[in-house]
Specification:
Layout lengths: L1 H17 L23 E3 L3 E8 L3 E10 L7 E6 L4 E5 L9 E9 L6 E11 L7 E9 L1 H11 L1
Parallel strand pairs: 2-8
Antiparallel strand pairs: 1-3, 3-6, 4-7, 5-6, 7-8
C-alpha cells in the first residue's frame, strides 16, 4: 500500500511539473529593460486623456494605446498607477513590430476626491525613446450637488 501511495505521489509531482505551459518567447525576461540590444521604438496615441465629468461613486474606464514602431518585439514590463483609486491592466505579451498594445485603466471615484482630478500611471517599456508618464483628468461632482442641479433643470 505504501508503494502504491509513493507511486501516485511521484506521478502527481511529475504531472504538475509538466503542466507549466509558459511561453517564454512571449514573456519578458527579468532584464528586458536593460538589454539595450533589443530596444525598439514606441508611439503612444495619447498620453493625456480627459474623461469629462462624472458623479462621485461612478467608475471610469480609460484606455491608452501604443504602437511598436521599431524593428524588435516590444514589452510593456512595468505599469503602476499613482494611487489606489486606479487599477491598470496592460498587454503582457510581446508586441511585434507594427503591432499595438494598451494600458487599460479603471478609476473608481469612490476612493478619490470631489473636484478636478489629475491621475498618473507610470509605464516602462523596452524602448529607446523614454516611456511616458500617462495622465488622465476629469471632474468629479459631489452627488448631492449633482442631484440639486438635475432637480433645478426639471
Amino acid at each position: 500500500m505504501q508503494k502504491l501511495i509513493l507511486l501516485f505521489s511521484v506521478i502527481a509531482v511529475f504531472s504538475l511539473a509538466s503542466c507549466d505551459e509558459t511561453n517564454t518567447s512571449n514573456t519578458p525576461s527579468a532584464n528586458v529593460g536593460i538589454d539595450s540590444a533589443n530596444f525598439t521604438q514606441v508611439q503612444w496615441t495619447d498620453t493625456l486623456i480627459d474623461f469629462g465629468t462624472i458623479t462621485k461613486g461612478q467608475k471610469v474606464h480609460i484606455v491608452f494605446k501604443c504602437k511598436n514602431t521599431g524593428t524588435k518585439p516590444m514589452f510593456i514590463y512595468y505599469v503602476r498607477p499613482g494611487c489606489g483609486c486606479t487599477v491598470a491592466e496592460y498587454t503582457k505579451e510581446a508586441i511585434a513590430p507594427g503591432g499595438s498594445g494598451e494600458i487599460d485603466a479603471s478609476y473608481d471615484s469612490n476612493h478619490g476626491i470631489v473636484g478636478q482630478i489629475r491621475k498618473s500611471i507610470t509605464v516602462q517599456t523596452n524602448t529607446t525613446n523614454p516611456s511616458p508618464q500617462l495622465f488622465f483628468t476629469g471632474t468629479v461632482l459631489d452627488p448631492s450637488l449633482a442631484r440639486d442641479t438635475t432637480a433645478k433643470k426639471g
